Amino acid sequence: MLLGGVFALLYQPPVKTEEIYSQALEDMKKGDYSNSYYLFSKVSFLSNLKPIAIYHQAEAAHELGDDNAAVKQYQLLFNNYPRHALSVRAKYLTAQEIIFKNPKLAQKYFTEIVNKYPNTDYGIASEYYLGVMLINKYHDNEEMFPLSEKNDAENYFRHYLKKAPTGRLAINACENWLGLKKEINGDDYLLMAKSYYLFGDYEKSKLLLSNTQLAESWTLDVLVSYALKNYTRAKYLTEIGLRDYSNYVSDEDLHAVIDKYISFTNKNRLQTVVDLISLNPQKGKDYLLNLKCRSVKNIDQPACYSGLYLKYPNGQFSADALANIFFQKYKEHKYADAEKIGLDYLKKFPNANSTPKVMFWMGKLYEKTNDYSKYNTYYSNVITKYPDSYYAYRAYLHLNRLQSPIITNYIIQSPVTYPYRYTRKNIIVKLVELKDFDVISELYGDDDFVKSWVLYKKGDYAHSMLVARDAMEKISDKPDKYDLRWRLVYPVNYYETVEKYSDETGVSMPLMLSVIREESYFDPLAQSAVGASGLMQLMPSTAFEISHRYGLGMTSVDDLFNASFNIKLGNYYYAFLKSMLEGKDISSIAAYNGGIGSLKAWQQSINYNDTDEFVEQIPYEETQNYVKKVFRSYWNYIRLYTGNN
User: Fold this and answer.
1) Residues 483, 583 within the same domain
2) What distance in Å separates the CA atoms of residue 109 and residue 457, rounded to the nearest whole number?
3) When comparing pLDDT for 228 and 643, which is higher?
4) Does residue 78 or residue 644 have the better pLDDT?
5) What is the pLDDT of residues 357-411, one digit of tens each?
């Protein structure tokens, strides 16, 4: 009998093991932790699910208030499965639990985590707890707290704040550090002030900043002043900071305060930038010159970008400057000059943000000069090297001699799946099938695509898409279109609803899906600062007008947060724009963002020969980028879900 029981624990048919595990998970979700604990204990020791079952046992014990049992299970996990990905978490949670019960052992565990996993979330948090434990050691005898150990505690808190300024323990780290009652230098006050600012405690941040050197802290002081609505101080600090202290701060911080200054000024953008340039900053003038070039009229941009490039030929904005100089030469029909500049650009900047733009326009140049071989090569190279870009889309249209921006109105619905193709032997297969999403996130959380997939499975479509989008942007050589990760970047959420109302209104279904993606990231509750609401970000006044025009039955602003109704209104609004703009989709997308009035003014004022030239010269930067982003999404939807490439 005994041997039979042992054998049952050692061996179970895999199907039986998965049935037990699945039921245990269901019980946990229902709050039946006792039965869940029992069932997880029945998972066979020969199964690769066993260490995860032990982990879940510990969780169940904790929920039942039996922390001693939880610790035993965690210890069983990291002692018997030291290389398992959950072991570090189990050791961390154990150390947290026994801080007061067995401080020496807790210190041992935290130290082991710091030494072995220094830059993980657990390693960083363990440093915080090691600092706290030093404080606890002298809690009842503070006068005996030696300076050497205070310094050790300070180092732990400093390391934590440097690595995790917005970590959940950051403010606790600051409070404990300040409570050490020892001399603190200005750099450390600045470090703490940053965390208080990021957590929204602006008054405390301001207080700590009073102990810092202005040369090093002025950028944060500016942001704090804006947050406290002390605009006079923010303006003053920005101006003297740029003039006298710009060399002491990072480019990122410098650009942030410049952008903030511009957004809060009463003057027009160009004049504000010119005023800041007149301060003659030691650093940041290239950023200001770039802002100036983006703000001047189209006719003045060539000279501005030429000046920027000549002055900063190797600066971080030189690639964009040279790309704009190249485009202007093309616009002036100076094709020989444009060709020379374009070739020089591609040699110097083979992988800059503006490289696909230059490659595409080189194709346009050779198309203009009837050099078939070269324009075919450049268009093809854009598609090959930058397959998901707006310029790949435009290159595809030119290569295939397509006049309409709409290649197709239909795509095939394909579900978001686990983002990697795997074998049946992989543990992830079982966890996916068993829907143990939290453990998947814990085991593979360092992979942003897995993180995105877990968020998707939990219904957080907006966050899921953004995580996947940012992860894909970091990949220089993009995977082929069959790679499952693309479905997370371009999911076909609300497919049936979008299809229904696009068919009803006669607009392009994948284009409307693209508008939703760019407007709200598939968040039905999205709302902008100016009141645009829902999936397709409609202004209430516009929505009511469209509803009245077509008899759609809108009764309340809250209707905009109903996903289906918002999509219906958005499709009808887009169809209305198309009817007003001769059925042109590029113009209609531009008007969706910038308004019909602005669009018609641009069409009158811009000198252009075709759609490509018009889009490139839309003077309102937000709208120009919007058009490119929407049609980039459109291109990717049809590329991924119809077979175009």
Assistant:
1) no
2) 34
3) 228
4) 78
5) 999 999 999 999 999 999 999 999 999 999 999 999 999 999 999 999 999 999 9
Look at residue 9 in the predicted model and tell me its pLDDT: 54
Give the domain extent around 57. Answer: 1-97
With beta carbons less than 8 A apart as the criterion, state whether 349 and 319 touch.
yes
pLDDT digit string (tens) for 191-207? 999 999 999 999 999 99
- Alpha-carbon distances, residue 595 vs 472, 549, 599 (angstroms): 32, 18, 6
- What CATH number corresponds to the domain at position 33? 1.25.40.10
**How does pLDDT run across 143-158, given as a tens digit for each residue?**
889 999 999 999 999 9
Distances (CA, A) of 137 to 95, 100, 177: 16, 10, 15
Q: How many CA atoms lie within 13 A of 130 on its CB side?
A: 27
Residue 535 within any structural domain of the chain: yes
What is the DSSP secondary structure assignment for residue 244, as one 8-state letter? I
Statement to judge: residues 557 and 446 lie in one domain: no
pTM for this predicted structure: 0.89
Tokens of 224: 């704090």
538 and 617 in a single domain? The answer is yes
Mean pLDDT of the chain: 94
In sequence order, which residues have a C-beta less than 8 Å from that of residue 598 and are 6 or more positions away?
591, 620, 623
Q: Tokens representing 239?
A: 């101006």
| Nearest-angstrom CA–CA distance, 322 and 307 | 10
- 612 and 516 fall within a common domain: yes
| Cα(625)–Cα(619) distance, integer angstroms | 11
What's the domain count of the chain? 3
What is the rounded CA–CA span in Å between residue 625 and residue 349? 21
CB-side neighbour CA atoms (13 Å) of 181: 5
pLDDT tens digits for range 432-450: 888 898 898 888 878 999 9
- DSSP structure class, residue 298: G
Residue 262: φ, ψ to 5°: -65, -40
CA 463 to chain centre: 8
In the predicted structure, residue 4 carries a pLDDT above the cut 60: no
Q: Is 533 helix (H, G, I), strand (E, B) or coil?
A: strand
Report pLDDT for 424: 46
Q: How far apart are CA 174 and CA 12, in angstroms?
A: 52
The radius of gyration of the chain from alpha carbons, rounded to an integer in Å, stands at 30
pLDDT band at residue 5 under the 50/70/90 scheme = low
Looking at residue 490, the DSSP 8-state letter turns out to be: S
Q: Are 86 and 94 within 8 A, CB to CB?
A: no
Residues 2 and 87 in one domain: yes
Asked if the structure places residue 451 within a domain, the reply is yes
Helix ranges (H only) for 486-529 are: 486-489, 495-505, 509-520
CA dist 269 → 206, 288, 291, 435 (Å): 29, 11, 9, 52
SS (H, E, C) 427-464: HHHHHHHHCCHHHHHHHHCCCHHHHHHHHHHCCCHHHH
pLDDT tens profile 89-108: 999 999 999 999 999 999 99
**Long-range pairs, 325-333, Cβ under 8 A, ≥24:** 326/358, 326/361, 327/357, 327/361, 327/616, 328/301, 328/302, 330/361, 330/364, 330/365, 331/607, 331/613
Residue type, 521: Y
* Amino acid identity for residue 188 in this structure: D
| Torsion over CA: 148, 149, 153, 155 (sign) | positive
Alpha-carbon span 492 to 465, nearest angstrom: 11
Q: Is residue 212 part of a domain?
A: no
